[in-house]
Amino acid sequence: MGVKIRPEKYLRYLNPTTLFTSKQRTKEILSANPNIIPHREEAKEVIVSVFDYNAEMLEEKKLTSINDCFQFKTSGHTSWINIDGLRKADVEAVCSHFDIHPLVIEDILSINQRPKLDEAENSIFCLLNMLYYNEEKHAVEQEQISIILAKDVVISFQEDAHRDVFTPLRKNLKTPHTKIRQRPADYLCYSLLDLIVDHYFVVMEKLSERVEELEEEVTRGNSTRSLQHITQLRKELIVLKRNISPVRDLLNGFLRTESELIEDRHLKYYKDVYDHIVQAIDLSDNYRDVMVSLHDLHINNVNMKMNEVMKVMAIVTCLLAPATVIGGIFGMNFDENVNFFHQRWGFYTAVSMMLVIPIVMLWLFRKRGWF
C-alpha cells in the first residue's frame, strides 16, 4: 500500500510572503545611511489648519493656500498653524515668511531624521516622530513631525494628512476658559510634545500585550514559529527605542534653553514631559530584557526537547543491545563444541534472555532516576 504524502502538513510552517516581509522590515530598520540623501515625494494633498486664539476668542480656519496663513504672523493672538503634507515650495515659503533659518528647511524635508532640537535667535525648532501601532501588521509605524516655536506662533509640519494625536488638544482649544487658551505659544508647544510622548505609552501598551502573548506561547513550548515571532517583536522594539531615546535630549534642550520664547513658569511642564519620556525609555529597556529572556527560554526549550529525544533514543539503543549481542552469538555459522545450539529449548531460552535482560535494565534505569 502506497503512502500518501501531504506536503501542506509541512509547508504550512513556511510562508514565503512572511519571509520576504521580514527581510524588508529589517532593511527598513537598519538601512539608515546619513551620507545618502533620500528622496521625498511631494505630497498630493496639503491641508492647512489654523487656530488663532486668546482667552476671549478662538478662530479656526481651514486654508486652501499656504499664503493665507502668512497673516497670522502679526495677528496679536497665539496662533497654531498645522500643515499636513509636505511640499518643498510650501515649506520654503513658510520658513521664508516667518524668518526661519534655511537649514531648518532641510530638516523638515528630511526622511528618517533623528529627533533633535535646534535653537535660533528668533525661533526654536524640534523634530521628532509620532508613533502608531498597526494591528494588522503588528508593526510600529512612525510619522515625522516638525515643530517651530516663534513669537506668538507655533508651526507644525506633518507627513500624513489623515492621522495625528492632537485631537484632545483641538477639543481643549475649542473649550472656553481652559488653561491653554490663557497661555502663550510656548505652552502650546508643550501641549503638542506632551500628546506625542503620551501616545508613546499607547503604542507600548500594544507591544506589552504582544510580549505577554509571546511569553505564554514560549512557556507552553508548542509553537514552531516562536523564534520568528520573537525576532519580529525585537525589531519593533528597536524602532521604538530608536524613536523615543533621543526625545530625552530634545526635552532636556528645552529645559536648558535661555531663549525668551520659553517662560520660566512653563519649564515645570516641560520637566513633566521629560519625566514621562524617561519612564518610557526605562519601559522599553525592560521590554528588551524580557525579549532577550524569552529568546533564551525558547532556545532552552528546544534544547530540552532535543535532549529528551536523545535520551529516549539512547535508552532504546541500550535495551536493544542485549538482543543484538545474543542474536549475533547464536547466529554464527559454526556450532562445533557448542552443544547448546541443538538443545530442544535453546531457541526459547535465547528469546527469553532477549526479553528478561532489557526488563532488568529498565528496572535499573528507573531505580537510578535516569528517566
Commentary on this structure:
This protein is of the alpha+beta class. It has two domains: 42-301, Beta Polymerase, domain 2, CATH 3.30.460.20; 311-332 and 340-367, no CATH class. The chain has nine helices and seven strands. The chain has helices at residues 8-11, 16-30, 88-97, 102-109, 167-174, 185-220, 226-256, 267-330, 346-367, and strands spanning 47-53, 58-63, 78-84, 116-119, 124-134, 139-150, 153-158. A seven-stranded mixed sheet has the order 2-1-3-7-6-5-4, sandwiched between helices. α2 packs parallel to α7. The longest helix has 64 residues, at 267-330.
* Strand arrangement across the biggest beta sheet: 2-1-3-7-6-5-4
**Largest sheet geometry:** 7 strands, mixed
Indicate the low-confidence ranges by residue numbers: 1-20
- What is the count of DSSP helices, taking H or I runs of 4+ residues? 9
Entry keywords:
rod-shaped, 371 residues, alpha+beta, 2 domains, Beta Polymerase, domain 2, 14% strand, 9 helices, 7-stranded mixed beta sheet, 7 strands, disordered N terminus
